[in-house]
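Board notes (copied after class):
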Amino acid sequence: MAAKSDYYDILGVSKNASSEEIKKAYRKQALEWHPDRHRDDKEAAERRFKEINEAYQILSDSQKRSAYDQFGHSAFSPGGMPGGFGGGGGPFAQTGRYGPFTYTYTTTGDGGNPFAGFDFGDPFEIFEQFFGGGSPFGARQGRSIPRYGITIDFMEAMKGVTKEVAIGGKKRKIKIPAGIDEGTRINFGDFMLSVNVRPDKVFERDGEDIYMKMEIPYSLAALGGDIDIPTIDGDIKIRVRPGTQPGTMIRLRERGIPHLRGRGKGDEYVQINVVIPEKINREQKELIEKMEEQDL
């Protein structure tokens, strides 16, 4: 079996990285390696995506990170802990494989063990840390609650959606709130739902803000004018200033993603890309030459 990659290397951070740096690196890697973005080699992307999730689950938890820094991967392998930890005779008793790549353990007496109560089960649990505890988003639950997964479109996640699902052989309608993020878990009381969000062709999400690129012709950038900009609530008209430069970023306040907690929305950022025509006619060439003479 091939040796497992270093968790810090997987996320691309140093061993003294702060929790905020680890979270930021994780979000970037998770978005980049989401399997829906790599349909040409989805199997490889899924493997990488699981590695990223596993690395973040360990490094985002101070106790798990401390254990990893001290013992490496053996801290979380059956029988791999120094001094007998992790085996059947130590303070942990293996209860089986839970999830696609990790183990779940229960304690049989802590004996002062600093790793008592560790949970290496559901890879989707890592996403709870973006929301914290308290509400249905992020509350840690007992293992007796059944878990299900659902995939929704980007716009459904932005606006909220009601879905009909089969739970225990019975059809139920569930409401997914607006602003839900990739991998968020929702507690419906008698079951837990993990939500996956398909990437959008136009928008990219970063927290509660969204980003998009807008191409405009050179003439519009030079002379200015009105353009229609897509938002999650439909197109809006904005005015482009004369002399707009390529790469200009326009901020549309509160045109982003609804806050899951409280009121308000994030912002939308539009990057303006100026399209230079590959071919021009004689009249256009003459106009450009006149502009060039004036510039000189």
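Comment from the instructor: The CA atoms of residues 6 and 72 lie 8 Å apart. DSSP finds seven helices and 13 strands in the chain.
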